Amino acid sequence: MIDFSIIWFAIIVFATLMYIVMDGFDLGIGLLFPFNKDAVERDMMVNTVAPVWDGNETWLVLGGAGLYGAFPLAYSVIADALSIPLTAMLIGLIFRGVAFEFRFKATETHRAFWDKSFVAGSILATFSQGVAVGAMLDGIKVTGRHFSGSAMDWLAPFPLFCGVGLVIAYALLGCTWLIMKTEHELHRKMSALATPLVIALLVVVGIISLWTPFSHDAIAQRWFTRPNLYWFLPVPALVLLCSWGIIRAIKREAHYSPFLLTLALIFLGFSGLGISVWPNIIPPSVTIWQAASPAISQAFMLVGSLLIIPMILGYTFWSYYVFRGKIKADEGYH
C-alpha cells in the first residue's frame, strides 16, 4: 500500500528547501545592503535577482498549501503556536517586496527610505523564519488535537538564537550569490565579506548542534547512540569540509564554487534538522501519520501536485537560464 503521508512529507520538505535556497540569497541581498553604501553597486546587487525574485515565494505557497491539505492537524497547531512570527514574516516579505520595486522608482531624496525599508523587511522576514524553525525544534505543546501552549512560547533564547543564525546563513547565501553574479569591485567586496560569514555560521551551527541535544534527551539519543552515531557522523564532517572548501574557493578567487558549496552547507543543516525531528511533524510527539489527512484526500492532492511541480521547476529553470551570467553596471530590469 502506498504511504501518502511519507510522499507528502517529502514534497513539503522539498518545497521548503527550494524556498530556503532561492529566497535565501534573495533575502540575503537585503541583509548585505548595510555593508555596501555605494548606490550603483546596490542597484547591481538588486538587479542580480530582479528577473527571478518574485517567483521564489511560489515554493513557500506550495509548502504551506501542502501542509494545510496533507497534514491539517500540523497546520492548525503550527498556525496557533507560531502566529506572531509567521505574521511578522509575511509583513516583512510584503514590506520588502514593496521596497524592492519602489526604490527604483523613487526620487533621490526618497531612495534612502526605501533602501532602509528593503533592509528592514529582509531582516524581519529572515529572523522570523529562523525563530519559527527554532520554536519547532524546541517543541510545541499539544494536548489531544489542539495547541495547549502560549502564543508567546517562541519568545525564548533558543528560537531567538536560531533567528540570528538564519540571518547569518541567508547573508552568506546572498554573499556567495553576488560573488557568482558580479565582477570587479563589488565582487571583491563580497569575497572579503564571505570568509567572516562562513566562520560566524560555523560558530552558530556548532552552538545549535550542542544546545539542541543538551536540551532534548530524545534528540541526544538519536545522534549520539550507536549505531546512529556512525551513520550520522558524515553530516558534521561534511559541514566542516564544505566550510573549508568555501574559504579555499574564495582565496583562489573562484566564482561559482563558493555559492555551490554554500548550497551544500544549507542542505546539510536542513538534513541535520530532519534527522533530529523525524518522524515528528510537530516535535516532540506528533508524527506525520498522526497529523495526516485521509489517504483519499492526500491522493487527490497528489494528482494535482504531480502536474504543478514540474511546471514550477520548468519555469524556474528557464528563468534562471535566460538570466544566467554576470550582471553589468549598465544593465537593469526596471
What features would you highlight for this structure?
two-stranded antiparallel sheet, single chain, mainly alpha
Characterization of the model:
The chain has 334 residues and is mainly alpha-helical. The chain has helices at residues 4-32, 39-47, 58-70, 72-81, 83-105, 108-138, 157-181, 184-215, 217-224, 228-232, 234-251, 257-277, 295-322; strands spanning 142-143, 146-147, 280-282, 286-287. The chain has one domain (4-322). It has a two-stranded antiparallel ribbon with strand order 1-2. A hairpin with a 3-residue loop joins strand 3 (280-282) and strand 4 (286-287). Helix 3 runs antiparallel to helix 13 (295-322), helix 6 packs across helix 7 (157-181) and helix 7 packs antiparallel against helix 8. The N and C termini lie far apart (52 Å). 39% of the residues are buried. The mean pLDDT is 88. It is found in: Cell membrane. The chain crosses the membrane at residues 6-35, 81-98, 118-137, 157-180, 192-214, 229-247, 259-279, 299-323. It holds the Pfam family Cyt_bd_oxida_II.
Q: Could you write a compact summary of the structure shown?
A:
The protein is an all-alpha fold and 334 residues long. It has helices at residues 4-32, 39-47, 58-70, 72-81, 83-105, 108-138, 157-181, 184-215, 217-224, 228-232, 234-251, 257-277, 295-322, and strands spanning 142-143, 146-147, 280-282, 286-287.
